Amino acid sequence: ISGGKLTGRVVGDIVDAAAKAHHLARLRDELGLRKDQVIACGDGANDLMMMAEAGLSVAFRAKPATRAKADVAINFGGLDSLVNLFD
């Protein structure tokens, strides 16, 4: 924003599929977690690389192609529905 108007310029890095996967893997490693201790949620194809870095991939109100590749899908309800997976 410049002079109270949008400039159309992007500040910072674009967070694409590879960036999401990199950040999840980096955090997982920094925390000393194993892949099977990590859950990743996504809703689109740009989340699939990140979801592959986790032990459990969750498609949250996702597009059909993402649901097909996820371990589980949450189509209704909120993100708190994840808790039901661990009853």
Would you mind describing this structure in some detail?
29% of the residues lie in helices and 14% in strands. It is an alpha/beta fold. The chain has a three-stranded parallel sheet with strand order 1-2-3. Helix 3 links the parallel strand 2 (56-60) and strand 3. The N and C termini lie far apart (47 Å).
Q: Could you name the ranges where pLDDT drops below 50 across 5 or more consecutive residues?
A: none
Distance between the termini: 47 Å
The helix/strand series, from N terminus to C terminus, equals HEHEHE
Radius of gyration: 16 Å
Strand content: 5-15%
Number of DSSP-assigned strands: 3
- Strand order across the largest sheet: 1-2-3
- Give the overall shape, derived from the CA principal axes: globular
Give a quick account of the main beta sheet: strands, pairing sense, barrel closure.
Answer: 3 strands, parallel
Number of continuous helical runs: 3
Bin the helical content.
25-40%
By secondary-structure content and strand pairing, the structural class works out as: alpha/beta
What's the average pLDDT? 93
